[in-house]
Amino acid sequence: MRGSDLGPNYFTYTSLLSACMGSGALEYGSCAHCQIIHLGFHSYLHIYNALIAMYSKCGAIDEALYIFEYMEGRDVVTWNTMISGYAQHGLAQEAISLFEEMIKQCVNPDAVTYLGVLSSCRHGGLVKEGQVYFNSMIEHGLQPEEAHDFVQNMPVFPNAVVWGSLLSSSRLHGSVQIGIHAAENRLLLEPGCSATLQQLVNLYARVCWWNEAARV
Q1: Got the DSSP string for 139-184?
Q2: What's the structural domain count of the chain?
Q3: Fewest CB atoms within 10 Å of the CB: 14, 17, 85, 202?
Q4: Where does a domain end: 25, 46, 73?
Q5: At what angle do helices 127-139 and 111-123 cross, to 10 degrees?
Q6: What's the CA gap between 24 and 113, in Å, rounded?
């Protein structure tokens, strides 16, 4: 392509960086970075995000951070990519600090953000912090269906606190089946927990399932 009349564009380099990331080809990725600067494509947000991802995946987390800090405009993908990069390198505190900065910058986190943060907590052995961030995920408006899917695939083994948070969210949104599933799992971890049983009663009352509420 470089020797033809058909010149590369920023989509070309996004694809190239993705290929370098997938194969761990740091040298080729760095060469692509030089070409991107030379051609003036480095001002594109997608290119910045792809560079951060490539350097993170290829083990050059300092280069990824340099690009992140150099950027003037960032979107949620930018923050997610850098947080995930820290998680992959076992840098739990750095990932958490970046997440807190993201919140201060009024960037709304999504499920991918929390996946990166919780993964960092898991690798760093930060169990209590992981529970706090899961609760924060619920508070930031993740719907029960999304939260349930997240729990099923989360990198931190869900404990009673996590299931309790999901049950509370289900009660607020009237998501009965997900709430029942959350209650059952919490009761497996904390048999006879009165708080769980009360939440289950409140969930049934929320949707007018009076017979089920009475049986609890």
Answers
A1: HTT--HHHHHHHHHH-SSPP-HHHHHHHHHHHHHHT-HHHHHHHHH
A2: 3
A3: 202
A4: 73
A5: 170
A6: 23
pTM, full prediction: 0.68
If asked whether residues 96 and 155 sit together in one domain, one would say no
Same domain, 216 and 147: yes
Residue ending a domain, among 31, 55, 73, is 73
Q: Which of 50-54, 68-72, 135-139, 207-211 has the lowest mean pLDDT?
A: 135-139
- State mean pLDDT over 188-215: 86
Given a cut of 90, whether residue 210 has pLDDT beyond it is no
Same domain? 88 vs 98 = yes
Strands (E), the chain: none
Q: Which two tokens stand for residue 46?
A: 């997608």
As to burial, measured by CB atoms within 10 angstroms (0-12 exposed, 13-18 middle, 19+ buried), residue 28 is middle
Question: Residue 1: its pLDDT value, please?
Answer: 44
- Each residue's pLDDT tens digit, 84-111: 899 889 899 999 999 999 999 999 888 7
Helices 76-88 & 61-70 angle (0-180, nearest 10): 160
